[in-house]
Specification:
The chain contains four helices and no strands. The chain is an all-alpha fold.
């Protein structure tokens, strides 16, 4: 599978799966709290998700981090990892340490 094919696969999953709809550019926000809040809001409002809002939100965030991989700078990845903890807090769960 070529790199272009892989990109198209992940883009297709993001755009056409039963995943929730996200605010455009949400993963590029510089503030982990803002990212988490936006994803939480999308998860709670979505009628396309198949699991709980928390699981859907966390899955979408993890999916993006994993698919972006080497394309993320260290700062971007750190921000997104912090957003996971903020997401846990927003849903009343304990952040990981």
């Amino acid at each position: 599978m070529t790199k272009a094919t892989k990109k198209k696969w992940s883009q297709d999953v993001t755009e056409h799966s039963d995943a929730m709809d996200l605010k455009e550019g949400v993963f590029k926000f510089g503030d982990p709290k803002k990212i988490a809040h936006s994803i939480k809001q999308s998860a709670e409002e979505s009628h396309r998700r198949k699991s709980s809002p928390f699981r859907s939100a966390m899955s979408m965030l993890s999916f993006y981090i994993n698919r972006a991989g080497d394309q993320l700078t260290k700062k971007q990845k750190d921000t997104l990892e912090k957003a996971k903890d903020e997401l846990r807090k927003d849903f009343g769960r304990e952040p990981r340490h």
